[in-house]
Amino acid sequence: MRYLSSLVLVKLLLAASGSLLAQPLALPSVAKYWIYLADKDPLVAPSLSPQALANRQARHLPVDETDKPVSAAYIAQLRALGIAPTGQSRWFNAVSAPLTAAQRQQVARLPFVRDVQALNPGLIITSIPHASAPKLAAVMTQMQADSFAAAGLTGRFVQIGVIDAGFFGADSMSWLKPIAQRGGFRQIRDFVNRAGTHNDLIHTRETRSDDHGTEVLGAIGGYDPVGGLQLGLGYDASFYLARTDAGNREFRGEEDNWVQAIEWMDSLGVRLINTSLGYAKGFTNPRENYAPAQMDGHTSLISRAAQMAVDKKGMLVIVSAGNEGDDHTWRVISTPADAEGVLAVGATNNRLWNRIGYSSIGPEALPYLKPNISCFSLYGTSLAAPAITGFAACLMQANPKLTNKQLRDIIQQSAHLYPYGNNYVGYGVPQASRALLLLRGQPLPNTTRLVKATGKQIDVDLSASVEQTVSVFRKKSARHVLRQEALRANKGKLVLRRLTGETHTTVDMKDAVIEVVWE
């Protein structure tokens, strides 16, 4: 990535000066800003489709000022000053635009401008190098795909919005052809290339990352009828696709693009959103990078937008947690996974279901649990989040009247560690059989046990478990992990010796969980 950024910098220098040996031109410095406006036109109606209005009414969510478009009169006045807005946000009543220092001062003095804030760099695709096809059959087994299949749940009639980097080849991949052939890709919009003719995102590749969204689609609803391989749970869903990231470069892929994309999906009535993008560290200007302490759920604009989508628009937003778990200068989740209302998804290994090394952990300063849940993925949390999105689509098909928060609660409560979550894997891996019981209002099987321990050691009885090598989370509080281990029982007994600072220990047997509280 650093090599790519260097090439971009060279091209910019060549464009500005004509030659690296020539004297640089005295061009004004231009940066991008959000321009927050004071009010809206009271005579203009909200920009919502009939389906979006019906969704709000059914869930008793009000239609308010955030649903009205940005004032066309204010945009016209900005254009008259030589300012060219590149994006609009009705939720935040703002437009984004490149401004020189002089223009910034001029705009700030306008009577209809409330504030002017600089955009920071930092968008990265939360995926490590990935394969040409997402090999996710294992995660289907982990989440009990057969339980949904037996109930006839395939995501049918559910609309899913995918905000990503690109969808090149989505109609030609064998596991996505069934969706393309039935017209399942309903609308596609490019928020990166807005000028000129419509860009064919499925048949045009601009960057190396333009198939990232294609792989995400495979993890949501991929199914190969010839080979019989199921890659995702929601293969009968309908999809609305938005490209908001300009590739895997070392600067933000336009935060305003993401905000506009989710507002567009809201206006269409789409309630389920998957985004496998995250804001973390940038490289173009290190002074403007996000810091781990800023992953607090409210610092970044994208987190505020995601929270608004949850609280005011009734959307279930599923986000990849990030792949910085092995980066000891960062380690924590990226934004918008830090927003309280989103369902942030980490990644587990397939054998023990504990945290795979790259998966980002939840900041200890947060008053709520992150990540929320996890599931198996070899290729980054970018492909863990869409696996959960397919899971959510099956639940929405089963009961379309559920609110976004009810859906989020069912998914969390169906996870195998619930209620003993931690900041490594959240509540663990959602289980379809448990989710179906919750949907029906039936009691869950008793698979948890609370044990109180005194002293420095305890022997835990594992004789009832089929798993004799288990995952152990050593915690310094009810949810913050000191370290995770794989331990083996001896003759059905697991010996736990208390670590310094350890207050809680979770013993994860996959089919059952024991929570040890040290006194």
TrEMBL record:
The active site is at residues 164, 212, 382. PROSITE patterns: SUBTILASE, SUBTILASE_SER. InterPro entries: Peptidase_S8/S53_dom (IPR000209), Peptidase_S8/S53_dom_sf (IPR036852), Peptidase_S8_Ser-AS (IPR023828), Peptidase_S8_subtilisin-like (IPR050131), Peptidase_S8_subtilisin-rel (IPR015500). Residues 1-22 form the signal peptide. One of its GO terms (molecular function) is serine-type endopeptidase activity. The keyword Hydrolase applies. It comes from the Bacteria. Belongs to the peptidase S8 family. This is S8 family serine peptidase. It comes from Fibrella rubiginis.
